[in-house]
Amino acid sequence: MRPDTPATPAENAENAETDRANHVAEAERLERTAAMYPEDAEHLLLQAAAHYELAEARDRATTLYDNLLASSDLRSPTLVRALKAANLWEYGHEAEARAIITGVRTAAPRDPAPWVIVAESLEAHDELEQAHETFTEGLDLLVTPSERDAGGAGIPLAKHPLLLGRHRVRRMLGIDHDGWDALADEVNRSTVSLDELHDPKRTWALGSDNPAELQAEISRLRAELGTYREALSRPFPVAVLHWPSPEYAELLSAYPSLTSEYPSYEAHLASTEASLRELSSSGTPNLGIVTGTVPSYEAFAASEGSSPEDVSLLPQYATTLAARGRAAAWPPAAGAECWCGSGNVYGACHGSDA
Q1: Which CATH fold would you assign to the domain 9-232?
Q2: In which residue ranges of the chain is CATH 1.25.40 found?
Q3: What is the 3-state secondary structure (H, E, C) of the chain?
């Protein structure tokens, strides 16, 4: 088939089935990995559930969410409940999904993600007023007065979806702009204005017979897609490996040959900060620090069929930890403690000469 030849319905069905099979295979691989690394099971099983949803195996996704919620050491229970609600609604369990969404809103989580998930689920099922209320509740709770006073630049990236989602719903409801909408305009990274991106008439334009209208809509969609691609281009941070002092001492005691990489603890800390600054100055976004432990590193080396003394494993180990969601963002937020574990504020520690 030529690249510019539309696929036939049979070919489309075959491709869709292949995609579903690939998603199921990846979900099952992630489940096996979670069994090998219990400390990372929550993050890995959430990824697996997402793949089951993409494969339309929504019952299997629900089973994973239920298993996670039954765990006694779950780190993000409200997030898991929000994901479960969104998934349930997609395959006909509306009443249960609504009850869970009500519970999530009542719990008032301090993480933006559950608010975004339940609000978008309401929006997807045309509950626009409820979606608007949910986005607003999340913003009122999570955006501090100092962040709001600082304008768009003061709003943390994780809270942007609340602003953008609320703006989108208000456009569909025909509500005039307010202060939150002005902040949404400021955090918008697309070359197309939010009023245009979120214009309900865009849906109608896609069915137009006017070539000029169609071309304008294609241009807007390309701009919006570019923004999404930028956000998704790196699913986990570029991370630098840090060993806390006790782990550093244990590592070099067990594997003295690694002194070639780590001549002293002070040098290790200085090198970690210097590497991150170099990456930052080269324009690399989404930087982070992962904290190593000797047992985890030994298990990783064994899984790679190699020795912990192999220096080339260290960056691979760091990347693996980042992929499991173990990275802390760098640089730390203003007033936060330094990543090195000294207990001092970053700006008075390794960030003092930034």
Answers
A1: 1.25.40
A2: 9-232
A3: CCCCCCCCHHHHHHHHHHHHHHHHHHHHHHHHHHHHCHHHHHHHHHHHHHHHHHCCCHHHHHHHHHHHHCCCCCCCHHHHHHHHHHHHHHCCCHHHHHHHHHHHHHHCCCCHHHHHHHHHHHHHCCCHHHHHHHHHHHHHHHCCHHHHHCCHHHCCHHHHHHHHHHHHHHHHHCCCCCHHHHHHHHHCCCCCCHHHHCCCHHHHHCCCCCHHHHHHHHHHHHHHHHHHHHHHCCCCCEEEEECCHHHHHHHHHHCHHHHHCCCCHHHHHHHHHHHHHHHHHCCCCCEEEEECCHHHHHHHHHHCCCCCCCCCHHHHHHHHHHHCCCCEECCCCCCCECCCCCCCEHHHCCCCCC
pLDDT digits (tens, 9 = 90+) for 171-224: 888 899 999 999 999 998 877 788 877 877 665 555 566 677 667 666 666 665
Amino acid 86: pLDDT: 95
pLDDT in tens, 216-232: 666 666 665 655 555 44
Name which residue leads in pLDDT, 278 or 3. Answer: 278
Q: What is the pLDDT of residues 165-176, one digit of tens each?
A: 999 999 888 899
